[in-house]
Amino acid sequence: MIQELKISNFLSFKEEVTFSFEATKETTFEDYQVVEVAPGVRLLRFAVVYGANASGKSNLIRAFEFLHDFWFQSKKDISEKTDAIPFKLDRETPKQPSYFSLKFYVGGVRYWYQLEVDESKVYSEKLYYYSSVQPTLLFERSLLNNVSVVSFNQAVVKISAVAREEINLKCLPNISFFAARNQVNVALTKIDAARDWMKQRVLDSIDPVTPMFEFAESRIQKDEILKKHLLDFVREADFNITGIKSKIEKQVVPQHFLDYLLKSDSMSEEEKERLKEEKVFTQISTDFEHTVKNQRGTEKYILPEDLESEGTRRITGVQTALYMTLQANAFLAIDEIESSLHPELIVFLLKKFLENKNNHAQLLITTHYDPLLNQTDELFRKDSVWFTDKNETGSTELYSLVEFNGLNRIASLQKAYRQGRFGAIPKINL
Known about the structure:
Elements (H helix, E strand, L loop, with lengths): L1 E7 L8 E4 L9 H4 E5 L2 E4 L1 E6 L5 H16 L25 E9 L2 E9 L4 E9 L4 E10 L2 E6 L8 H10 L6 H5 L7 H13 L10 H9 L3 H13 L4 E12 L2 H9 L5 H10 L1 E15 L2 E8 L5 H19 L2 E4 L8 H12 L7 E6 L17 E6 L5 E5 L12 H6 L12
Parallel strand pairs: 5-15, 5-16, 14-15
Antiparallel strand pairs: 1-2, 1-6, 3-4, 6-7, 7-8, 8-9, 9-10, 11-12, 12-13, 16-17
């Protein structure tokens, strides 16, 4: 589970900000929304971020995305960019590295990862774990004469001189330690536990343009348990869908088009190998069975996916992602969750996610839908609410609702938010 993320000089974050899943001492929804991952360490399963357009809400999610992608992206050439983007509205920050600090738990073990990286190279990379109150270094990576140098804590990490040298050779200045380590056949138990957590427990984020129905389709076709779960969900959400049927359609690829695809960079090597062997495109189509009542009684009709509303397609995909997050005890971020969804469905989605007791899955959402604030203490906790706001330098500030005093005396958090008591709203000059 994620404990906290610190960011500075990345996208709209100039000064260091801290986002935390650490719970306060309040006990609201303790059994469902708080997980004690270690003695005295209580982490939240949910957080929501509010803010005006272009205030930096999405950039918080992009920071999580960057770390996940950077850990596993290899580069073919030393000249390729790292994809780290510094704060651009200043003369000095574009010359300086971005900084990330991520604290997380794998099982009951706490890890601390630190990274300093600019657009072309890594300056510093470290991973610690906690076997006691003090952190123990696992590896440290620095930059010496534009060459990455990786060293290990030999008291904890057992690695041969040959494997250590091979990792150093693979560790180009523009890739992470983990991308280099993955190219070397060696077991690094404590380090690999952190790597596997990032790979398996931090899921791809969702934004308004993510093709969610296509994401769901490929999984519905293979997973009958998921299909039943979605049917139960849409019935409970008052859709008149009573069946989901999917089928695989294959189409032969003409030779001239096959040659073109195999030469292009639009497909992975794995996809190219499959296409070369099968010489067919595989396409999944999904039909929905609707049960309706009319003067003739109860009747069933089949609607193909392209006739379903965008809202139906969207919620099918989002619920699939939430189901997978719960199954894997993973972390998922959804940017602008209200996209194509009715407000009541947003509340329903969150309620279904949060009612899972003894689950370690975490959900981070951003939204403009401020009536959700009135669900505080009814659906989620006060310490789950965060805000982003731009200051006069153009930099994003990130802060928690619980930093404000007198919250229990406020009758409507939504009204207080609209009145500007928490900031993070557009400043419109009429």
